[in-house]
Amino acid sequence: MRAAIFEGVGKPLSIQTVADPTPAPDQVILTVENAGICGSDLHMSEGEHTPAGLILGHEFAGTIAAVGSAVTGWKAGDRVTALPLNACNSCDACDQGLPALCSENLFTGCYLNAQGAYAQYVAARGSMLQRLPDGVSFEEGAMVEPLAVGHHIVGMAEMPRGASVLVLGGGPIGAAVALFARHAGARDVIVSEMSESRRARAMDVGATAVIDPRKEDVLEAFRKATGKARPSVVFECVGLPGMMRQAVDFAAVRGRVVIAGVVFQEDTLAPIAALGKEVTIRFSQAYTESDFAAVIDALARREVDTQPLHTATVSLDELPEAFEALRKPTTQCKVLIKP
Predict the structure, then answer these.
(1) Taking the complete model, does pTM exceed 0.85, yes or no?
(2) Which class for 196: exposed (0-12), middle (13-18), buried (19 or more C-beta within 10 A)?
(3) Which of 28, 39, 103, 186 is 20 to 30 A from 314 via CA?
(4) Are residues 88 and 105 in contact, defined by beta-carbon separation less than 8 angstroms?
C-alpha cells in the first residue's frame, strides 16, 4: 500500500510503498476512505521520541477489507469508523468501559505496532468498530473521532439545560465543544478566541456570541452577551500554561470547569480561588464508545453539521505539503485526506 511515513523531526512526511497490514485475530483491516489531520499529529511530528517509520493518523473511516479470525458480527464491505484504541482489556479502566484511560493502551497512529491511517489501509480492533449508517458520509465518519472528543468534554460538565457557557479557545476542539454544548441545551455559548476565522466558525457551529480576548475584557463581554455575571460552565480548550487558573477565575459560584487543553509542563493554580467559590474542576481525555455512538446518531439525524469544520480535502500525494502548511497560522480547521 501507499502511505505517508514520518522519517524524523524537521523532515516532511514521505510517500512510500510499504507492506499491506494483515489482521490479527481480533482486528479488521479497513480500506481508508478518509482520514483527518489532527493537531496532535503535528505535535508528534515535532517530538524527539516519535519513531521514524511511523504512519500517523487516528481519525478515519472506510470499508472493511479483511476480518480477523476472532472477530464476529462484521464482514468485508461494511462501512465503519473506529475508536483508535488498542487497550489491554483487563485493567480497572477497561473493566469500567474506559479503554482510552487504560495505561497499556496504544493509540493508533502513535506507535510502530499500531500504525495509523495516513495510508490506503489501517488496522482497527474489531471491538472498537462503529457502523456508519447509509446517510453518514465517509467524510463525516472521519470526523466522528474529533467530534467525540468534544461530545465527551461537554458530557464531563454534567451541564444543566439552559446553562450559560464560556468556551476558551475556538480551534477544532473548542468548536466541537461549542457545537455539542448547544446540542445539549445550553442557552448561551460564548467562545473566546483570538483568531477572526475561528470566531466566525464558532458562530457557524452554534455559538451565540464570540469574544476577541485581545481587544475585550472577557468577563465584561460575557456579561453583555448573556446578562449573567459569570459562566456556570467554563471549558478550557486552549492548552497553554495559565489557562486553567483563568478558567477558575472566570467561573461562577459553584461553577464547573472542564479542562480539555493539553499542557505538558507544570502549571500553577491558586486553590483558594476555586475553594472560595466551591468550583468543580474536571479533566477530559479522549472519549468512550458511547460518545462515538452519540455523535454518529446526531449526524444520522442531521442534528449536527460538520460542514463548517471541514475546510479542505487533500490526496495522499498532497498530504506532505498540506501537513507542513498547518504548522503556521491558518484559516483551515479540519483537513481530510483521501488516500
Answers:
(1) yes
(2) exposed
(3) 28
(4) yes
